[in-house]
Amino acid sequence: MALRESIARARNRLGRFRPVVAAGQILHREQLRPTRRRYRELGMSGPWFGLVSHSEVAGRGQGVALLDRPDGLAELEADPRFAALDASLQQGLREWPETGYLVAKGFFDAQEVAAANEEVDRFAASGRIQQHHLDPRYMNVHRESAAVAALAEDERALGLIELILGRRAGLFQTIYFQTGSQQEAHSDAFHMMTEPPGFLVGMWVALEDIDEGAGPVFYVPGSHRLPYLMSEDLGVPDPPPLLIADKGDAYVRRMRELVAGTETVKFTASAGDVLFWHHNLTHGGSGVTRPGATRRSLVGHYFARDVLCYHEVTERGALMPAGFE
Questions:
Q1: E-assigned strands of 93-132?
Q2: 2-317, what's its fold?
Q3: pTM for this structure?
């Protein structure tokens, strides 16, 4: 653990140096192709490999996600794809503008779930995949595991996401969890922002039965309607010229204030259940109260196409998968 913490601190320090960030972006020129295109379309004057933040780009983009629009539900219900959905999914989408989430019980079957777990275990044992340096999670394991990719790139899931956003969408990243994240309340928007805002959907898949002791995901219904919490709202002092502000602690404090006194829901789930959530929905990981409990699960984050995708927390353009344009 000490080594992991040392590595995390070193990465954090390096990641705050503007020249280091710019150099890293240049090295990933191809993955920034969509970002470079969007920079031009939005009329941005800075270099494509430079820093980007909400205060710089807010208001430049056009459009609103379908279910964020006042007339969005009527447009959705007129879509033939909506009529083909199960009644429970239709109802969840109707409630989305108020709740900011959709629960899809039994979305994946036992065989699909078992195949993903077996392949991850096998690849981990052989060293083909490695855990993240901070905790027992695997980043983007779908790039190695066909079984995980089958879940993350499921056409039905993508279809639901595209109905929610009103635009084509694609998978940005996956995270495979072995145990509960116990992550503080947060919104994906601070970590994976879009311009215009609102064009990301998260998907969380239970890969085993998950009870309260295992540290289930929690969320705050309706919190997606709160203002987006961005860097300029945190009161962090301006850093020296060559540094990016360290916003993590300030963000956690503000989110704690926002969550205090609100209704939180724990998503206890059966294997194969899925939770979809809005770009700005407040969520996190509950505490693990049963010693040794696992919480196998898969998270996918999906960006709409034709929007600027960036990381507000680190002020850099998002490195997009091949073919994401």
A1: 101-104
A2: Jelly Rolls (2.60.120)
A3: 0.95
